[in-house]
Structures are given as structure tokens and as C-alpha cells.
Design goal:
This protein is mainly alpha-helical. Helices cover 61% and strands 0% of the residues. The termini are far apart.
């Protein structure tokens, strides 16, 4: 079974992003973070979703 594991750095980044957005709107911050987590969770069912990142040459 595939599992999504959030690193400590990723969790810290989510918290920082949420705090930054919350300076203007607590509601928008919560909504954005929830949507970000939801989109990341989709990778469990669809790991090939998205476009490949080009290899810098």
C-alpha cells in the first residue's frame, strides 16, 4: 500500500505558509492549507499525476 509521509520540513513549511496567509485572512489560510493537503493526498491514488520536472542541463 502506498502511503504519503509528510516530512518535518514539509509540515513546518505548511505552518509557515498558513501563518503568512493568516496575516490577511485566517479563513483563506485554513482553506488554502486544506486544499494543499487534499491535492497532495491525491498522489497516493495517482502517483504519476502532474507533469515531469525537466532535468536542468
Amino acid at each position: 500500500m502506498v502511503q504519503l509521509i509528510w516530512s518535518e520540513n514539509a509540515i513546518n513549511d505548511l505552518n509557515s505558509i498558513g501563518k503568512y496567509i493568516a496575516q490577511d485572512s485566517e479563513y483563506a489560510a485554513q482553506k488554502f492549507i486544506q486544499e494543499l493537503i487534499k491535492k497532495a493526498s491525491l498522489l497516493v491514488a495517482h502517483p504519476a499525476k502532474g507533469r515531469p520536472i525537466p532535468n536542468p542541463s
